[in-house]
Amino acid sequence: MINSREILESFEGRMREFIDGENFKKCIQCGICGGSCPFGFYTDFTPRKIITATRAEIVNEVIESNAPWLCTSCNLCTSRCPSKIPITDALIPVLRELAMNYSHPPDELGQALTNIHRMGNSFGESNKKRTKWSEGIGFPVKVLKKGEHVEYLFIVDDFGSFDLRGQEITKAIAKLFRILGIDFGILGEKEKSIGDHVRLAGEFGLFEEIAKSNINELKNYSFEKIITMDPHAFNSLKNEYPKFNFSKDVIHYTQLIDERLNDIKKILHPLNYTVTYHDPCYLGRKNGIYDAPRRIIESIPGIKFVEMYRNRENSFCCGGGGGGIWYDSYIKKYVKVRPAEERVLEASKTGANVLLVTCPIDAIMFEDAIKVTGLEGKLKVMDISELLLESIGKGV
Amino acid sequence: MENRIGVYICHCGTNIAGKVDVEKVREYASHLKNVVIARTYMFMCSEPGQEMIIKDIKEYGLNRIVVAACTETLHGHTFREAAKKGGLNPYLVQMVSIREFDSWVTENKEEATEKAKSLIRAGVYRVNYHRPVETTTYPVNSNVLIVGAGIAGITAALVLADAGKHVYLVERQGFIGGNMAKFDKTFPTLDCASCILTPKMSAVKNNPNITLYTYSDVEKIDGFVGNFDVTINRRPRYVREDLCIGCLSCIENCVYKEPKFISEFDEGIGKRKPVYVSFPQAIPLVPVIDPETCIQFRTGKCVQTCLKGCPTKAIDFSMKEEKVNVKVGAIIAATGFKVFDASRDSKYGYGKLPNVFTTIQMERMLNSAGPTGGEIRLQDGSVPKEVAIINCVGSRNENFNAYCSRVCCMIGLKHAHMIKDRIGADVTIFYTDIRANGKGYEEFYRKIMLEGVNFVRGEVASIIPSENNRLTIIFEDTLLSRVRKKEVDMVILNVGLEPHDDWEDVRKVLNLTCTKEGWLMEKHPKLAPVTSLSDGRFIAGAAQFPKDIPDTVAQAEAAAAEAMSLVDRGVVESEPNVISIDENKCSGCKMCISVCPFNAITYNEEKNIAEVNIGLCKGCGACNAVCPSGAISQNNYTDDELFAEIMGVLRE
């Protein structure tokens, strides 16, 4: 039997350590969080009710329920909260931390975290395989060594390195960099998980360890800016790593392409697609990058661009964030229609035959959802980089 | 001279024309006897609409006007002015309501059209008998009577006095300041109530334009707008205001060494002596002797140490009631409120459980000049560790008061803050909805939440005494859908506001109307919120409805402005609808005298007839209706006019 008072005190104590963490006390119980949540229909405690539970001193019931785990960290609740409660960055991760100490987290989550701790990546693969995606790319990808200098350090992170679909996207982005003559390099086997999912999963200790170790490793290399392909890595490096004295500029690859749009436009050729674009939670809502990807899409001749009804700050999550991609079978137990399935159906309704993304997790989640919803052959998922390459390739 | 009538039918957008076939009605009206011209227009009250009437009066030589539109109250004045501009006596206009009486309340279009025809026919028949009415003007007395010297009355008095008007400020308690004087801090700024109130109280005392009557009641008001005769009854306080120097040695020297009697000002949680002042900065600083508890009054055998100690011999056991007559032009009623008696809702155990208090008691407890010197204490003198504040006690409950008392949510938040701040106790607020809708109020609410006050949505079902003098609260947490229990040391009942018990008597003396609960009635809820339905009488503060200090002060300033607008104008127009009494027909039965609410009719014994003072007549028509001999005739309501109107409605 868990002591409810003790749990409540740990909860309050941990919340106090976060910026605005105490705002949970200001909850006006409006319920915008629960209504906005992709898992709102299925969770035992919406964020509102979690806060009610703190007031009724029954946080123990919350951490024994499915509530800590039915969160994709999509940030929709947080972005809308009228009391500015950091639900995504603090409330849920703190509950997850408590749940890991006092209750039973999903088994698959434990496996992923163990892999990251031991192997430096969530896939449990040898970190030497980090460069596998560059095989057969047709040009040498520079693995940065001490003493060498590049303009951009390309951080690929786990899904772009080890997932087969992710590798295709990484390859496409690297090809684009080469076409644009961008001076970039990677860390290869020295790159380790950036860890945003670890943080959001409530493993704050492990996240801090990862972040500090990565920051130390990065000190060995000479580069101007970090460029990322994974919005989750982008978010952590940009917003979380600075808390551990890290001060490098970090950009997402779409921002660089957007900057160089005039150069790239000259080599684009018409494509006959109707496309729609899914704003990744951690590129759009969390970091406000909505226009760069859209400007890129609209620069491609022949393309018809249609918006989904829920776009930009109201974009709907793919369901893979916050560690969700690691424990899909746990989510399936409670959730009738997974967010990715709902989202691909929404994309299909626009009449688009291509669903564009700028996050490797989106590509993985949506392609799986397309199979489940019978949209195979009707809707194709592409990263924006892949679409650009196809447009360039038409002229070759 | 033959009657030449113009009929003007307003569409009022679709308000009328959406139901009434205005063209059909116009066609019908144009054939009625003496009608020279009938027109319709989209908005008759607009400038072009009025111009149309003015032009027609001249072109067609009209001498009677019928406007079929909204009501006499709404636009009667507009069209009388138009007639006047056209060169007609304004009372040769008859308004016919085909909106309020017809289009808004009739579903069937044909029925609505037929009804419009018959109402206009009645108006046309009636207007034939209209006669020109001339009004005169009367001078207005520039003094103002203000009843109630709480923050509303004080504010209004200072505004008027600063403008050079003489104010008679009457307060039934021994001291001014009202409820606000009891408070410790005020929301949402948390400034101390007496710090902001006492300067105003001193200003009242020092302003030569204010005559203050405390411990006094308004007994009678005669006269009419601009010329009221007010009788004030000054109850004896047994300490002469003209002699007392406010040294308070009488209180010190009273034979009762310790305060022994329940202090009304301290809401029952403090004690006073038979001779007392409400608080140290009381205005006037002249003690009151309570004959109910004073030994001298009860036995006649007191050693009178108070009198012996008084350096100016101001104590006078022989003081009697005294009547004062004052003349004023305007009256402001600022009679305030009382708090809900929490023992009426027995589930809270108020009056039975020693540690269940009300918010007004908490104000006294928190006040550093109060009975505990600002200490928050349980009945046994210990400091509570856990406190519950229960909102909506007596409010939003059809078993008691259906309305929301508007101030309690904020009071609860304020108390929660002060309790946490002073003693660090855990505070839980039980609420139904938090209503924080003033400037800075929602922000205050958020601030209090952030301070760690616990909020539970759900009303308390019972409070049960438990061990160690603790109280077990049972409630449904409606946000969790669970029935829960909580143990606390102290409960504060957030009581609502109610009109005074004697509101009916006060209403009668001041000749005001009230809601069914007893709140003073405004002339219009939006557009005339401080004007009463009686001319020359204005209302301010919580006597009208529960309101907080900012709203009360704003309303008091508005009432002062309305009163000033009247007394500064210097004249009032006489009532047009006054009566006249035909000496030859009057039988001297005096029935008219008994029904006249304005004392405008007197009996002439010599002639055995009733006589009217048309300066006092307000044209209510009560006498006209009861007069059995038909001796009374009223301007604009002559029998000819009324019978013609009735004939018009009835004739097909």
Supply the key terms:
heterodimer, A: 396 residues, alpha/beta, Fumarate Reductase Iron-sulfur Protein, Chain B, domain 2, Rossmann fold, four-stranded parallel beta sheet, 19 helices, 46% helix, 9% strand, globular, B: 652 residues, FAD/NAD(P)-binding domain, five-stranded parallel beta sheet, 18 helices, 34 strands
Write a brief structural summary.
Chain A is of the alpha/beta class. Helix content of chain A is 46%, strand content 9%.
- The rounded distance between the terminal residues' Cα atoms of chain B is 28 Å
Structural class of chain B: alpha/beta
Radius of gyration of chain A: 21 Å
Largest sheet of chain B: 5 strands, parallel
3D architecture notes:
The complex is a heterodimer of chains A (396) and B (652). Chain A is α/β, with parallel strands linked by helices. Chain A is 46% helix and 9% strand. Chain A has 3 domains: 4-105, Fumarate Reductase Iron-sulfur Protein, Chain B, domain 2 (Orthogonal Bundle); 108-259, no CATH class; 261-393, Rossmann fold. Chain A has helices at residues 4-16, 32-36, 47-55, 59-64, 76-80, 87-102, 107-119, 157-162, 164-179, 196-200, 204-218, 231-240, 253-259, 261-265, 291-299, 328-334, 339-349, 360-372, 384-393; strands spanning 149-155, 184-185, 222-228, 249-252, 274-277, 304-305, 354-357, 380-383. Chain A starts with a helix and ends with a helix. The model of chain A has no long low-confidence stretch (mean pLDDT 95). Chain B has 5 domains: 5-133, Rossmann fold (3-Layer(aba) Sandwich); 144-235 and 321-337 and 499-569, 3-Layer(bba) Sandwich (FAD/NAD(P)-binding domain), CATH 3.50.50.60; 249-309, no CATH class; 338-498, 3-Layer(bba) Sandwich (FAD/NAD(P)-binding domain), CATH 3.50.50; 579-635, Alpha-Beta Plaits. Chain B contains 18 helices and 34 strands. In chain B, a hairpin with a 4-residue loop joins strand 8 (185-186) and strand 9 (191-192). Chains A and B meet through helix 3 of A and helix 13 and strand 23 of B.
